[in-house]
């Protein structure tokens, strides 16, 4: 954002609440660009045989991850998990449980992760072009974003 959406002045860095933030330099306007993180819901979708790991059409060929989607305004995060499971995989969510909430500063997001037990026939939507079912013991989480949720969930699977 280059200009204030309230008065059209050029946005500038200002000291606001003891922090350097971007905002309108006109004290009469007072607009602050808070740049709050975007809420994203992640689903560790478990089906018979393991966890669905999917490939997004825009990703490098070898990277597969769990399913994610943006939380709609006014939507309950758990309902978002159910909706995204259906939209992206065509699977019915049978059970959902919260895994945790994770920062993802690289994308200015906060991730709300759920474990979803699901059933049905997988049919990928236009965002995905491949998937594989991976046994929990064979999942190798990455050290950020949804990988943190996978790490926590896998810990709960040990001995179960």
Automatic annotation (TrEMBL):
Residues covered by the Nudix hydrolase domain: 36-156
Organism of provenance: Zhongshania aquimaris
PANTHER family in the cross-refs: ADP-RIBOSE PYROPHOSPHATASE-RELATED (PTHR42904:SF12), NUDIX HYDROLASE, NUDC SUBFAMILY (PTHR42904)
Cofactor: Mg(2+)
Taxonomic path: Bacteria, Pseudomonadati, Pseudomonadota, Gammaproteobacteria, Cellvibrionales
Keywords, ordered alphabetically: Hydrolase
A Pfam family this chain is assigned to: NUDIX
Alphabetical list of InterPro entries matching this protein: NAD-cap_RNA_hydrolase_NudC, NUDIX_hydrolase_CS, NUDIX_hydrolase_dom
Entry protein name: NUDIX domain-containing protein
Keyword Zinc-finger annotated: no
